[in-house]
Amino acid sequence: MSYRAGPERHKRLAPLLNMAHFTPMADLYSQLNVARGASEAEIKKAYRKLAKELHPDKNKDNPKATERFAKVTQAYDILTDKDKRAQYDRGEIDEEGNPRMPFGFGGGAGGRGGAFRGPNGEPFEFSGGGEAADLSDLFEGLLGGMGRRGGGGPFGGFGRRSAPPQKGADVAYRLEVPFEDAARLAGQRVTLGSGKTLDIKLPPGVEDGTRIRLTGQGQPGPAGNGDAIVTIGIKPHAFYRRDGANIRLDLPVSVDEAALGGKVRVPTVDGPVMLSIPKGSSSGKVLRLKGKGFTGKNGQRGDQLVNLMVDVPDDAELARFLEGWSGRGKTNPRASLGV
């Protein structure tokens, strides 16, 4: 069944005909550079690679990259949802997750390589001869009053839903924190890309690589702002070493302090304290300062472990004393090693 009419009616139909000729969105699989039968793991891997390349934080002067980032994110959201992916593969929804338009429009399930159909389901095709096709009767029967039920022209009654609004993109930051601040969970200040500064609290159990999410501090979007993701880096210290929730410190002590014992001043992340050195201490002896370590995830602080290191000076008087003392019943400190 074909529909023909004189050229005088072609102009009236031109706008409707032009609406049927549009450029479809790129296939979701090609957006992510994966095959149509790709596994979920392959899709996730491909998305992570593209997200790193196209993230708005790295492409502030490239709006096309930001636009592409939004498209690959939308493709990822649909293809990692099993139900939506199945609907897309069957041609029931389009690249934005909306139902495909019926009657062959939009290149979906109803229009994949097929002809347009009339009000009774009979196919028709455009004439390639000298007469222009007249579809006025067709559209009147096809659309009827549907175009009056919704906005947006003659196709407003098809019930096509727009994509749900999305939040803006998340923005990544890295914050280097002093060793002592991380141990004490001292408050930190971060400056965002917008120039805004925020005070943040470090969580118990913080370690190098811990991520803190600042809700609503990312890029703006139709459904609200994205988030700021702050990754914590803990700076190394000149003499402290972290051991889980504990902190280790090598503490030099003099010969007389080790031999005779006494109290010495020791640095901690909370400030200096006095530590008692037992009489007759040797290098390698470990003393413990309770509650001077890092705060664990359970809220309890670890300890500071102090490793004594006897410092023997190059002193002539001490050397003469030791030469005389060595002959008075000197013991072998390596006897336990069999040497």
Describe this structure in words.
With 339 residues, the chain is of the alpha+beta class. The chain has three domains: 7-158, Helix Hairpins (Orthogonal Bundle), CATH 1.10.287; 171-234, HSP40/DNAj peptide-binding domain (Sandwich); 240-325, Urease metallochaperone UreE, N-terminal domain (HSP40/DNAj peptide-binding domain), CATH 2.60.260.20. Helix content is 26%, strand content 19%. It contains ten helices and 13 strands. The protein has helices at residues 10-19, 28-31, 40-54, 63-79, 82-89, 136-143, 146-149, 179-184, 255-260, 316-325, and strands spanning 116-117, 123-124, 171-177, 188-191, 197-200, 211-214, 228-234, 240-243, 246-254, 262-266, 273-277, 286-289, 304-311. It has a four-stranded mixed beta sheet with strand order 8-9-13-12. Strand 1 and strand 2 (123-124) form a beta hairpin. Helix 3 packs antiparallel against helix 4 (63-79). It is elongated, with a radius of gyration of 38 Å.
How can the largest sheet be summarized?
A: 4 strands, mixed
Spans of 5+ residues with little confidence (pLDDT < 50)? 1-6, 13-24, 103-133, 138-158
Strand content: 15-25%
Domain module tally: 3
Class computed from helices, strands and strand pairing: alpha+beta
Helix content estimate? 25-40%
Q: Could you give a quick summary of the protein structure above?
A:
Helices cover 26% and strands 19% of the residues.
Topology:
Layout: H1 10-19, H2 28-31, H3 40-54, H4 63-79, H5 82-89, E1 116-117, E2 123-124, H6 136-143, H7 146-149, E3 171-177, H8 179-184, E4 188-191, E5 197-200, E6 211-214, E7 228-234, E8 240-243, E9 246-254, H9 255-260, E10 262-266, E11 273-277, E12 286-289, E13 304-311, H10 316-325
Parallel strand pairs: 3-7, 9-13
Antiparallel strand pairs: 1-2, 4-5, 6-7, 8-9, 10-11, 12-13
